[in-house]
UniProtKB/TrEMBL annotation:
Its job: Removes the formyl group from the N-terminal Met of newly synthesized proteins. Requires at least a dipeptide for an efficient rate of reaction. N-terminal L-methionine is a prerequisite for activity but the enzyme has broad specificity at other positions.
Record keywords, A-Z: Hydrolase, Iron, Metal-binding, Protein biosynthesis
Signal sequence bounds: none
Protein species of origin: Allokutzneria multivorans
Biological classification of the source: Bacteria, Bacillati, Actinomycetota, Actinomycetes, Pseudonocardiales
First-tier enzyme category under EC: hydrolase
Entry keyword annotation includes Hydrolase: yes
Keyword Metal-binding: yes
Cofactor(s) the protein needs: Fe(2+)
Record family assignment: Belongs to the polypeptide deformylase family.
Entry EC number(s): 3.5.1.88
Active site residues per record: 132
Protein name: Peptide deformylase
Length: 167
């Protein structure tokens, strides 16, 4: 297991939809182990494979003492009730914007053995499940902001020292 370095806004891997996992082998187990370990660092609630440079459909989470992962997640249920709460992202450090999310979410996927997994949660876990699934679809939470906020967020990101710039 290893804590892998993060990729930051501007890196093309974050805007590319992830490939579904079709091979359940030691390489996948290693990726999941790294996601599970990397999410345990302070200030982290979730981590998607693209955030560590891997275009595979998998994420880990650590919210309110619940620590797990999902491979090939699909959101199968969202509450009709939504909430605008401050949201941030490890790949967009130091920025938080109000983001509209359902207050309850259920994700269905599989584990490293291709066995079914279902994760449901309210509040922060619901927000995390939606946020991480967005990453796997090539979306950042910034994409969900209203146009004026998105423009400001992009301006701030491009001016930051962490913004990924083509070499």
């Amino acid at each position: 297991m290893a804590i892998r370095p993060l990729r930051y806004f501007g890196d093309p891997v974050l805007k590319s939809p992830s490939d579904p996992v079709t091979v359940f082998d030691a390489k996948l187990k290693s990726l999941v182990d790294d996601l599970m370990e990397s999410v345990t660092l302070p200030g982290r609630a979730g981590l998607a494979a693209p955030q560590i440079g891997v275009g595979a459909r998998a994420f880990s989470y650590l919210v309110d003492g619940r620590h797990g992962y999902v491979v090939n997640p699909v959101i199968v249920e969202l509450s009709e009730k939504v909430h605008d709460g401050l949201e941030g992202c490890l790949s967009v450090p130091g920025m938080n914007f109000p983001t509209r999310r359902a207050t309850f979410a259920t994700v269905r996927g599989v584990d490293v053995n291709n066995e079914p997994v279902v994760v449901s949660g309210r509040g922060e876990l619901a927000r995390c499940l939606q946020h991480e699934t967005d990453h796997l679809d090539g979306l950042l939470y910034l994409d969900r902001l209203d146009p004026a906020q998105r423009k400001e967020a992009f301006r701030l990101a491009r001016a930051s020292d962490w913004f990924w710039k083509a070499r």
